[in-house]
Structure formats: C-alpha cells, structure tokens
Amino acid sequence: MRHAGFLTLDALTDALTWCTNTSQCRAASKMPELAVTLFQDAAHLGVARVAVFRESPDLVLTYEQTSSSYTYLEGW
User: Fold this and answer.
1) Segments forming the whole domain that contains residue 23
2) 72 lies in a domain?
C-alpha cells in the first residue's frame, strides 16, 4: 500500500467500493490481509476511515450470499 498515505477519504471510499464490486478483488485470498494494511496505512484519515471500512464487509456479504463464486469458510 505504497500510496495509502496520499489517499483522501473519497479516494479510499472509491477504492473499497471498486474492490467490493469486483469479484476478483473481493474473493482474492490476500484481501483480508491487504485490507488491514490499507486501514493501518490510511491512519492519516483518522477515525473517519472507520465508517468507510465498516461498510465494506456488509456489502461483501451481500454480494457473496447471492454470488455463484466461492466464499470464505466460517472461521478461516
């Protein structure tokens, strides 16, 4: 996440929305780890970034429950 320190709140929202809407990004095996790194690296956005990140898992669950692609197993 080399450029995370330069993100605005709007750019972070756009990036997470794009990833949520894109099955290859959403289902990537390293995505949970990358999301944590992005959250940490976007610390300059303060607590405002928390709301943006909280929306993403709910949207992912919505997509994955209706998707024909694989989903992560509970507890993995």
Assistant:
1) 4-66
2) no
